[in-house]
């Protein structure tokens, strides 16, 4: 039992004789700042239980009396321990379950057969809720109990009602199709995925495995070989990485095409030599000389691992380079032996040293230094932390999190990396773990706890090492090998945290070795799913067919079945659309969508209706797309404005993605690309021009006006005979302050072609000459 889980009650004999343990000074659910953000921002069904994030759940009587339940109480020794208030969660859950049962039962056909079938089903549900994995050993029942309780915690009674409807439908269909189970389930044998790719298996491939920590140059050396190849491909986990490799190779004169799910760029001059892809788009049907697959440890990802397995087993590359963490070595050895290939392992060391600091920031944001990156794990917490930092320090903070477009994340990282502006800090999520080059001195964990759909979870060792490895000024392998006078002491990366309670775990995680990977993810081929669905009547819900296929599938070590994200919500949408065949539904299942988001759910349904009912797929004919948000003025104070832009951007990404699969339906790819770029511009302005600090906000607006007036002035002025100055522009007469006059004086001198040295607010001195 962990110290933070220990209740304030009598000790058993074992605990009484246990050696004393130093107790943490805060709750398990996160730091004080994160708790404040949760209290004010989160609106979840658990709030109905009067849960106090800082110190347990409050009873109704305590609320009426105005009692303040403190999260801690002190024993005689003065040690703080967690105060636990009894809450009848089980009683609330049981009551909600019975009420949900009555709701669903009233919806059924009131026949004896139907009601008897329901009673048998609900009896099994009740039995599952009473089960215990330790006492009964029934994993299926225990898993159902866990899912029900988690659903109630996340969605309340309505969530249980939806769950019971789906499960009863599956139970009813299982009963109807029990006689044909043996014939249909024979197609669910996925024990030998290596046999799915006979062409690749017939080749004698040479596999190079490049392993090492973050910033060790492993990917750089693999790309060096790709640049020399006559043909090849790169497969990465992010569009951002695919864009980076595409730009890098074309700058070196290598003909490279970009192929991601929503974008295709093929050079017009000459044949394509190299393809840069997201890993899902790796061309496994094309024989090449060299292939590079990045972040190979993601082969064990529970949702996307199938794409790495497909690329490793199926690509027809004479020489395949895999780059990633050392924990992937045992699994890759097994896969290589299954395919009959040869393996060579290359080990790399970090280019700059990495250390864990001896102390934390003690919760004091004023201890932040220029170049610090603070890592948090919720969108609300990130925005709150950014506001608190800017108010406290008076300096700007860039921001990066997963739901921001890749282009905006890269722009925010560039603002942070540029030493000649006032962006001293970066507030980010675990999205910085890959795909961004950051020049940060310290990585500071705001918390080691993150909230997932399955509940609260502590960061794994690999996650701590991946994020912490971003500390230290970014230096490529080429820069490291060419540099002879590098001051390693100045380039030491430092890792710490905001609260002292998290430091022991971070220190232990940074020193520990992550557990080796033991299985690779797979998904059944589309042809198998199509054949399996043909075994059922045409009106059988596709959600039931796919879930049954998952349930009866057989896999063998070292493979496991991946879970497609948001499957239940997506099935609920697609099964109600007339005209979609199985292949169409599988395309939507593979799309980058979030069916649990209400806004995205409406968009997905509209897109699916365009395909199934042959409606117009022109961008302006789909009212569910909130294109009107692009006409509204930029607002940095309204968080819903930024959220709406993010939702629109995701919808446009989905439109472009579907446009390459249903080209005859979604025809406005050019217009969608333009709208996507407009949304990115507005998001960039929202993040850069607005700040919680009024002084910083005014400075940003002044700089915007000066730049706009300067650009307009230069556009309307002949290159020769310039006599006007920036200060003469009417738009700036009422906006220039003393600092702005310095910038205007500097700009005037630049326009006149002089070399000047005048103080500028963003830097101590500047020297520029315009020929």
Automatic annotation (TrEMBL):
Keywords: ATP-binding, Helicase, Hydrolase, Mitochondrion, Nucleotide-binding, Transit peptide. It is found in: Mitochondrion. GO terms for cellular component: mitochondrial degradosome. Pfam families: DEXQc_Suv3, Helicase_C, SUV3_C. Gene3D superfamilies: 1.20.272.40, 1.20.58.1080, P-loop containing nucleotide triphosphate hydrolases. One of its GO terms (biological process) is mitochondrial RNA 3'-end processing. Its main location: mitochondrion. It catalyses: ATP + H2O = ADP + phosphate + H(+). It comes from the Eukaryota. SUPFAM superfamilies: P-loop containing nucleoside triphosphate hydrolases (SSF52540). Its EC number is 3.6.4.13. InterPro entries: DEXQc_SUV3, Helicase_C-like, P-loop_NTPase, RNA-DNA_Helicase, SUV3_C, Suv3_DEXQc. GO terms for molecular function: ATP binding; hydrolase activity; RNA helicase activity. Residues 360-517 form the Helicase C-terminal domain. This is RNA helicase.
